[in-house]
Amino acid sequence: MNRDIFIRNLTGDRIELSPKGRNANELSVEEFEQNYENFFEMIFEIAATDIKGIEGYGEFDENNEAPYKTFKEFVEATFDEKQEGYWHNWTQMFETTFLKKDYFDSIYAKVMQYADFCEGQRFLANNNTFFCNMLVDEEGKTYCADWGRAGIMDFLMDFAILDLNKPYLLVPEKLYDYAKKNNIEIKNFRERFLCMAYLKGLHTLMWHSSIDDLESCESITRSVNELEDRMNKLAD
Q: Using CA atoms, how far apart are residues 65 and 60, in angstroms rounded to an integer?
């Protein structure tokens, strides 16, 4: 089944799959400050999708199934060097690109350190919420325009991607306050957010290393390195 049709059937009329609007990447910092709650509401609406008929974790495969029994299996498969396709034997990049094994191993260890907090956290996630993949209409409502990497995982992944893309917008800090204001309980917020951010950060770093995009690699590394201190400043 076509991915868009699958997502439409899964979400019903709650999520617009052919949105119109301004590319979210064009928003200024001030405009995001005025509209960030619309981004948050969009992600929570996606996460509220009924997925009781879907088992597993991970990005949907060609059969629109989440192929991994546990979150840890999803993580391990993401970085399996024997996987088919673009990432086959990707560890060769340790010798040929910006990506360094010691750094990769240190961040991967943090993913696994926090992985237990994400077991059982099964939600529909767009998993590609970079600002260039979202649209904002005239009323400020926000939409995901690309569902090609959607899957079942912790919904904090979609927030972590926002922050990885533009850390100066302070997404986790805003989300922490937003959740308190709206009486939304996010258990183990710090650990889950860090796990999702480190997972996506590593995979994004792999991608930009593979295309020799040094500037993006440096930006991602800086964002990943600073995140734990930022999260530790949030109140318990």
A: 5
